[in-house]
Amino acid sequence: MGQMKDPAPSRLAYKLNRIMLRPWVRRFLRYGLPVLILASGVAFWGSDQGRRDGAMDRMAEVKRQIEERPEFMVRLMVVEDASPNVAADIREVLSMDFPVSSFDLDLSGLQEAVETLDAVADASVRIRSGGVLEIEVEERVPSVIWREEDALVLLDLTGHPVAALSDRMARSDLPLIVGAGADTKVEEAMALFAAALPIRDRLRGFLRVGERRWDVVLDRDQRIMLPESEAAAAMEKVIALDQAQDLLERDLSVVDFRNPGRPVLRLGVGASDILFETGFVAE
After folding, report:
1. How many independent structural domains does the chain possess?
2. For the ranges 69-73, 87-91, 102-106, which has the lowest average pLDDT?
3. How far apart are the C-alpha atoms of 163 and 102, rounded to whole Å?
4. What CATH number has the domain bearing residue 161?
5. Are residue 155 and residue 116 in the same domain, yes or no?
6. Model pTM?
7. For the segment 212-264, what is each residue's pLDDT rounded down to a tens digit?
8. Are residues 123 and 107 in the same domain?
């Protein structure tokens, strides 16, 4: 009778069975080993330069086909809330050829380009349904005309340039400011413009003197010299005197209000009779 085989496992088989019972080994065989095999296959496949280039070309072609699908194409640009001149400037600065894929549009870059225009205070850019690039702008509102040497420039209330002006009379509704630093004091000039409402038909402009104070220039070569501080209040006093005693209708060349407590009148050429009941000192 032959010798029977021992049914007990060998020592090696026993150790292997014990290892297989460990959780981390079972997890590795279930998840890690397939991933390792797949990664090895991909690495082997990608080791060939020709295969890599072909795959990149196919991916680029698929990407191009997706980007050029009709639903992703922008075919039209509209500019909202802009005057015709500003809208034309926006189209010129963007200089876009349509149709163009929405994936190729840098909306932030387009917005920054639009906001470089002096006339634009703020802009928003978006793509709306139907393949329309919508640009909505907030224009700067001109408040004054600034004469800089031989040029005329429209400024907004902050002193920011809005546009060049070829003819002062084209915006006769706006005050003219002149002098170094005048563009940094637009709000002060507008306060003087408001105070000068009763004599606005005689107003020629506001001259910034020494970057410290204002002179108000009127027709008939008259000038009102204002103090460095509280210029608008001083202007209101001059207007009150004019309304009470026709001060500015007299033959005066200068009303010097730099010291409101001791104003001075400078007589015009050919002046013969000045009434002194206002308390002024005449030169």
Report:
1. 2
2. 69-73
3. 32
4. 3.40.50.11690
5. no
6. 0.70
7. 999 999 999 999 999 999 999 999 999 999 999 999 998 889 999 999 888 89
8. yes
